[in-house]
Amino acid sequence: MTDRSYVLISPCRNEADYMRRTLDSVVAQSLTPSLWVIVDDGSTDETPQILAEYTAQHDWIRVVQKPDRGHRAVGPGVIEAFYAGYDTIDPGDYAYSCKMDLDLDLPPRYFETLIKKMEGDPRIGTSSGKPYMRVNGALVSERRGDEMSAGMTKFYRRDCFEAIGGYVREVMWDAIDCHKARALGWIAVSWDEPDLRFEHLRPMGSSQTSIYTGRRRHGFGQYFMGSDPLFYLATCVFRMAEPPYVLGGLAMAQGYFGAWARGERQLDDPELVAFIRAYQRRALRVGKAKAVAEIEAERAALFSA
User: Fold this and answer.
1) Which domains can be identified in the chain, with CATH numbers?
2) How high is the pLDDT of residue 208?
């Protein structure tokens, strides 16, 4: 019998405005999680009371409490909170794990569909659906690339997660992991179809201070990861076509080139950085889809080995 067991781990802080929709959408899943560990990272709103309500109703939901750090964790702080939950489980008990945010509304067959797709191709190590935002009553795509699993619902095959060494506790953790998986011969992917389109209740990069702070943080993260400057500049231009128009892309560029000017530290993995830059430069010439397909074909032997 195929093992479809999966564990969700959700870092959260002060999510009372959104979390009921997330909780209800997970409770309604066609394939119920084996366990859901929610790490309360020092919430000061009604989050603890809401969590107590749901844990009383569902024995597969467990809460881990962390002391109040005084602010919302972002970047490496999110992964620190994730591991506060992950370290309480035995990973060998689950075929899949998912780092999931508490500001999402998932379709009812979300996890069942991901698992079916991953069962169909053993090389798929990490996957997700696509995030959408509600703008003036309509759902609008956040335009995430197919070559990455979305950071707000990182669904992992256990073998792949262990092969990459888990998440790095640094900014841009949610891109570094996909690049590393691909470098080792795995496939990282996200799909845009009805059973996998989920609503992101909080706009990308707006969880702390302002959306501009979030975009500058993203730019810093791309610098830290070692992204090619021309590739990232093209990304900034691409993002200027969405709210906040032009200024959001400029804030991303400011974060990247400001870190470059200050000589900030970068990811201490020269081999992976070289791999990332080679992919990005190839993508500028032939497009992301073809560049990724070339890597997957080239690295198939690594997976087989």
Assistant:
1) 6-200 (3.90.550.10), 209-305 (no CATH)
2) 55
